[in-house]
């Protein structure tokens, strides 16, 4: 007790693999005055019963980076910290039962190529050669990752702990944290052994993370969105075929994963470890009945839940069916509503961080520790990590019913393919437009954008709107013809798009203009005008983009993407100076985009606003007697206006426009049109993995703030039509090597060609390149830096 620390730079709560990795990486960065508090022994939570698989494979760019880093770290960690570890690099085969699954594999393999991984496609004959006990007669192919493997979770955690201690960090076991108190911008962490004053605090409490998060709710954090799932895997007795193979070849057989059936099989000693993800599945502790301490505990096995998967695995590997079961592990693992962990700043709370809700904490622990340490020591990670940023979730995701429904959906579809035109149905209608019912009556097919339901396309009677119709990587589905019609209506007449859910902040107070000017890379608009404002992160990369409308000298509206609401609110609020007011009006207001060459004619009878005002002008006016804001801007690149108004004003305005002839259109059509103009989208083209100049924001950066010319930047591509749009992070090849990556793509209905934005070397305009799309090399041409459609902007300025 006498040497209990009174102060620290960082206190980490939780001693699983992720918490200890975070401590180790902070110490590697030179932050050795850090303390980790563990209520029991290290690994007492999900870590101790984890299977320890370490895949590189991931559909998320951020997760692939994190897992790639983890695997590379683990291969050298034992020698680096002088701690013996059982880390087996066996390689893994993934089975494909269908061409669509093989296409998914091809895309992930190509993403891996960009990151320097070594995945390759496999034939059934090749699979039989490296995994002779498996049946392959009904498969179409597979994917091989030679760097995949498995590790002992306890040894991994202890090795990281030794590395952290050797560098000077402290770990205090059997010391439950009991709460936190604000201390200026820092914290006092309370524990059963004493209090520690610190600059930063990290919630790495695993499946207890939601309880720890409650301590931060009085300081602005919404309830942490998570559910605990019951996950089982079983271990067999020794299997003669495996004993013989190991005796002859040494080492271990590769792991196999069968994503279409939803399980993995891994050699464990001379038996097998079968890990299924069943559907239906079982969530636990959803009624506030989580025990105070579940350290080193499991539940009774429930093999009936996984019987079908077990039987299929026995057909795939007949030797499994002849083996006895030696033990069943049935333990808790946490899930967020999208299945990805929380790594980064706590929403709403300054100098507090999440590193929790890891479904695959061993595979991601090493990379998660690096990302968390980067956030604290540098202000941002090296990679685009928004997929795991805790602020990607709004407060509405904390609804217990929503969390339960989404967690069970994700767990039950752990290996599911995420096709580009599909939506997952659970948790629908959490945030809706005031026109929601009307849109659905008109045939709108909905999808969530930052939780807000928006129309993606409008079906006609007889169109196939089934979930099955969306299970394809192809561009051409029931939506394609309708999207073309919607684009034509906008191009030739007038369309209206309900854009509910823009994140919206009102900024005012004496000195607001000076404060805002100091936050952005460019210049503020004059009163009655609007502009795009770019914010740079602490490492010099893109932080966010907001539109800024100026109503008076010191009164502004800042609008950003729906999914960026918590992220961008914190960016503004944490830097706000006394005397200024920042108000979130996201849910009080709504928006309609009215656009097309006839939009002025349709708006004139319903608004008192000046429709002759120039492009990028803004005005506070009325429409049908309601106070609104009229902004002359259109993300579709046509003559148009955004109408921003109170929620109760929007339905009447929408009905008046549609009755006057405006055609409802959806987000698929808007995506096509914005790409033809080369407009960047938040979260894809505008990524924290790029700098402002790389994303092409030069005209929104003051000349004195631009710095040297970048070596790469976003370019427009026109592709040959192969029937598929490339997914984000598809590689672009030139001269026999990868030279860049796709950031977004769609079919350009106005120009009649497939198009994309891609990050490529500077000076690539005019070059012939190839885009790798699901294993195909598709020819493309790099377009000069100008819109593909209406390059002189004559239509939107009309």
Write the layout of secondary structure elements.
Elements: E1 7-13, H1 17-28, E2 34-37, H2 46-49, E3 53-54, H3 61-81, E4 87-89, E5 92-96, H4 99-114, E6 120-122, H5 124-130, E7 141-145, E8 149-151, H6 153-166, E9 170-172, E10 177-183, E11 186-191, E12 194-203, H7 209-214, E13 227-236, H8 240-249, E14 255-258, E15 263-268, E16 271-276, E17 283-284, H9 307-316, H10 318-321, E18 325-335, E19 342-345, E20 352-356, H11 361-378, H12 400-412, H13 436-441, E21 444-449, E22 452-458, H14 478-492, E23 495-498, E24 503-508, H15 512-519, E25 530-536, E26 542-552, E27 555-560, H16 565-573, E28 581-584, E29 589-595, H17 599-603, E30 618-623, E31 626-631, E32 640-646, H18 650-659, E33 663-664, H19 667-676, E34 712-719, E35 731-734, E36 737-748, E37 753-761, E38 768-773, E39 776-783
Parallel strand pairs: 1-2, 1-12, 2-9, 5-14, 12-20, 23-33
Antiparallel strand pairs: 3-8, 4-8, 5-7, 6-7, 10-11, 11-12, 13-16, 13-17, 13-18, 14-15, 15-16, 19-20, 21-22, 23-29, 24-27, 24-28, 25-26, 26-27, 29-32, 30-31, 31-32, 34-37, 34-39, 35-36, 35-38, 36-37, 38-39
